[in-house]
Amino acid sequence: MIKRISLFKLKRPNSADLHTAAAALCSMKGAIPALLDIEVGVNFSQSDAAYDLVLNMTFKDVDSLRQFEQDPFHLAVKKTMIQLKQNRVVVDYENHQN
Q1: What is the pLDDT of residues 36-71, one digit of tens each?
Q2: What backbone torsions phi and psi does residue 94 show, to the nearest 5 degrees?
Q3: Considering its fold, how many domains does the chain have in total?
Q4: CATH number of the domain where residue 11 is located
Q5: What's the domain range around 79?
Q6: How many angstroms separate the first and last alpha carbons of the chain?
Q7: pTM of the prediction?
């Protein structure tokens, strides 16, 4: 299994933009065949180091991750996130525990 964890810091982390971003990310569930599982969380920490949103995704293998990256539905969500985000950090890794 391949996991991707993305953290997003929004330009304006107000409730409307947080809702829009979370809804856009959640909309990928069931819409993209290569995406096995998805989890979206909104941060509640007050830490200056905290990001606003987390996106955890699971893929069968690296090929599935690459298919996801080119999927038209994902690319549309990506456009939305580009408009809302200030910064994004990402980690892709192979989960050896499953």
Answers
A1: 999 999 999 999 999 999 999 999 999 999 999 999
A2: -90, 125
A3: 1
A4: 3.30.70.100
A5: 2-94
A6: 7
A7: 0.93
